[in-house]
């Protein structure tokens, strides 16, 4: 069972749903880059061999008994990391888009800047991988919305390549958006006056499978996230039950 | 107008009967049946107590009493549905938290069992 291996212990979190085609390579790459860092895969009730592949590659795996969706899956990892006493968690996707070579960079910024969240941004170094037109419009739209709310530019608001500190872990372990969590998570942080920075990363094409955000879902995505952002701004947490 | 009011009264009695039947068979919990019973009782009273219905219609500024009754029924059902949406959201939150905790405990238990299992003789 994975445990913190020092006072400022880092854990790599990989949420995965039917990533059997790529998870072994993602875990192996991460282990090569940061061999002493525990890797936890949260298997979101996959119907393929994601769990076996991840274990074979050397990761620890927590399997949730029914499909929670990305947010629920990531929150399970944050919950575990917080309870186990980890100080930092860096999340990468199981599809191979997030290059583990950038993990040390995110970790360094997380520790040195003392911010609560570091986002790996594909739009800071000019080397932008091809993205769909609908997604491009969505990212542009949310940049404008977030600029108004956060009073700060977020170049890559939909990036899931993020590192969080223990302070953010504590918050996310209790409350984390369920669907499309990246943008709403920024608003959750803002409410607590937490800070974040972006660092330039290069994102790759998926190793296998297809993105869950298709062109048809983009419209729903925009509406859902926009509503989620508004709700998170207005949310009253004074009487929130502890679950 | 009388026929419509009688139909509403009949539907209210049917709803009350259905709710009691569901409670008896444990298909619905008592605390969740209260909303439906209250809605059905209000429908029954207003459909049979025309004076009260007319007062309501006057209060709402509606000349047509049956229209006022339909408006009240619609409002009642919107309130009941909203209440159930709140309950469902609450249950979903609890469900997710339980699922996450179960998965984490299962993982921990598996490691404890592995640690305490006797070594393989081969």
Outline the biggest β-sheet of chain A. 7 strands, mixed
- N-to-C SSE series of chain A? EHEHEHEHEHEHHEH
Report the radius of gyration of chain A as a whole number of Å: 17 Å
Low-confidence stretches of chain B: none
Please, could you describe this protein's structure?
The complex is a heterodimer of chains A (243) and B (122). Chain A has a single domain, classed as Spore Coat Polysaccharide Biosynthesis Protein SpsA, Chain A (Alpha-Beta Complex). Helices cover 42% and strands 14% of the residues of chain A. Chain A has helices spanning 23-33, 50-56, 70-84, 103-113, 133-150, 166-174, 181-191, 215-234, and strands at 10-16, 39-43, 60-63, 88-91, 117-121, 162-165, 196-200. In chain A, strand 1 (10-16), helix 1 and strand 2 form a beta-alpha-beta unit. In chain A, helix 5 (133-150) runs parallel beside helix 8. Chain A is globular. Chain A starts with 9 loop residues before the first strand and ends in a 9-residue tail after the last helix. The mean pLDDT of chain A is 87. With 122 residues, chain B is an all-alpha fold. Chain B contains four helices and no strands. Chain B is elongated, with a radius of gyration of 25 Å. Chain B starts with a helix and ends in a 6-residue tail after the last helix. The interface between A and B is medium-sized, with 18 and 14 residues.
Concise description?
Chain A is of the alpha/beta class and 243 residues long.
What topology does this entry show?
The complex is a heterodimer of chains A (243) and B (122).
Chain A: E1 10-16, H1 23-33, E2 39-43, H2 50-56, E3 60-63, H3 70-84, E4 88-91, H4 103-113, E5 117-121, H5 133-150, E6 162-165, H6 166-174, H7 181-191, E7 196-200, H8 215-234
Parallel strand pairs in A: 1-2, 1-4, 2-3, 5-7
Antiparallel strand pairs in A: 4-6, 5-6
Helix pairs in contact in A: 3-6, 5-7, 5-8, 7-8
Chain B: H1 2-24, H2 30-48, H3 50-60, H4 65-116
